[in-house]
Automatic annotation (TrEMBL):
Pfam families: MAGE. Keywords: Membrane, Transmembrane, Transmembrane helix. This is MAGE domain-containing protein. Residues 1-152 form the MAGE domain. The chain crosses the membrane at residues 85-110. InterPro entries: MAGE, MAGE_WH1, MAGE_WH2, MHD_dom. PROSITE patterns: MAGE. It comes from the Eukaryota.
Amino acid sequence: MIFKAGQQLPFRKNELQKHIKGALGKTFDKVIEKVSTILEKVYGFKLILCDSNNKFYILSNNLPYVEEDLEKDEGDDLPEDRRKILLMLVLVHLYMTTGIVTQASLYSFLRSLHIDPERKHDELFGNVKEYLTVTLVKQHYLNIEKIVYHKI
């Protein structure tokens, strides 16, 4: 549902029933009610029934609007938690890659986003290589293991 919400398309009841085994009538309504609660509490989305005759649902962002402080200095454009952006990029690569992720694979992925781990990005991320190999390892996001090859 979250993926399809990004496409901003409505959900049909029969589409949803395909993914929920044995969900007909009241069972379906209970499942939708539970899903709606989870989407709202966990992800900040509200599941809305748009057309009760045709049973169309949409997801709407239910998070409060936060207005930025307009009196900020112009040099303060970088977010405070900008390293979380780098963490999210690393985690995306880890979860989307099947199997073990090599250092070369991760570095190649970051370079494709114009983030060179061998170069210090003073303004944005700082020392990327140190962040990956020290900080993220200490926080248990990454586990670095040396692979030993044996000649046969």
